[in-house]
Design a protein that fits this description.
Layout lengths: L8 E5 L5 H10 L5 E5 L11 H17 L4 E4 L2 H6 L1 H4 L7 E2 L2 H11 L2 E6 L1 H6 L1 H9 L4 E6 L3 H6 L6 H16 L4 E5 L7 H7 L5 E3 L1 H15 L12 E4 L3 H12 L5 E3 L32
Parallel strand pairs: 1-2, 1-3, 2-9, 3-4, 5-6, 5-7, 7-8, 9-10
Helix pairs in contact: 1-11, 5-7, 5-11
């Protein structure tokens, strides 16, 4: 492996959601240097096709490889659900996703598990399948929540409309008498205050970020990649507007980050839409869609 002990861990998401994973890294692996990338030009990922997500992920990983990362954490459940298994063997550094670590945490917590996620993650049944592998007796209810990510990215967490939308999404899960709720999107822990007001107090929240960071720690130990040298400042990069990301992320980071705008390389593996690797960026609004199983 070309990577050295002091190289950064790459972390990526479509936007500010992955900051929930970054904060866990700061807490549990404070000696590690981080490269954080937000693909804000193409968010939300949750309305994309599997082919689009794989293309985006390969472009990000190609760039992170060129930056010399020693490990990558997909701080994005949609990418973890749709692309992880496809790309893991294509790169010479470990790539970790959120689904299996989160599923393990949920199975330990309860027997009636609700999953709130993007529509793409819900349709993939990734969490249901992962939970069934661990404990087939655990019941799972899934809910696609397409409006959450845009509302969070627009900093409308405490907007009355956001609570109204959350009540709509959570109603079937409450009726199913869930005892555990998985944040099936890294953006969603930002909504904990809102969700806690709606759900019964007995419901346990599972944040897959806690579990993927622990898995990363074990992987670093196993591969002897722990950083024992100089700690580098976190490098923040985006594909979209750097100022917007800096402003939005300040409230969760506690500081205003310096943010670089970068241009991703073209994918070397997959071509879409009649051999074109250019995908039209279609920012469209989706109304609430439920996926209950």
């Amino acid at each position: 492996m070309k990577n050295s002990l002091g190289n950064r861990i790459g972390v990526f998401d479509s936007g500010v959601g992955g900051l929930t994973v970054l904060r866990k890294l700061y807490r549990y692996l404070p000696q590690e240097s981080i490269l954080y990338f937000a693909d804000t030009l193409r968010l939300p990922y949750g309305t994309r096709t599997k082919e689009e997500i794989i293309l985006f992920v390969r472009q990000i990983l190609d760039w992170m490889q060129s930056e010399g990362v020693k490990m990558v954490i997909m701080a994005c459940n949609t990418s973890s659900a749709l692309a992880l298994e496809t790309v893991q063997s294509e790169y010479d550094f470990p790539i970790l996703g959120l689904i299996h670590p989160g599923a393990k945490g949920a199975v330990k917590a309860g027997k009636r598990v609700g999953v709130i996620s993007t529509v793409a993650t819900a349709k993939s049944n990734a969490y249901r399948d992962a939970i069934a592998e661990i404990n087939p007796n655990t019941q799972v209810w899934q809910m696609g929540c397409p409006e959450f990510v845009p509302l969070i990215e627009q900093n409308r967490i405490y907007d009355p409309y956001t609570k109204k939308v959350a009540q709509q999404y959570l109603k079937p899960l409450i009726e199913a008498n869930i005892d555990t709720l998985i944040y099936g999107c890294t953006h969603y822990p930002h909504l904990k205050g809102v969700l806690s007001e709606i759900l019964p107090s007995s419901v346990r929240f599972i944040d897959p970020a806690d579990y993927v960071v622990r898995a990363a720690e074990k992987e670093l130990e196993l591969m002897n990649l722990r950083n024992h040298g100089l700690l580098l400042p976190t490098r923040f990069c985006v594909s979209g507007n750097s100022d917007d990301f800096a402003i939005t992320s300040k409230q969760w980071l506690g500081f205003t980050p310096h943010v670089e705008k970068i241009h991703l390389p073209s994918s070397k593996v997959i071509e879409l839409h009649n051999n074109s690797t250019e995908i039209e960026i279609n920012q469209h609004h989706l109304y609430a869609e439920s996926l209950i199983a």
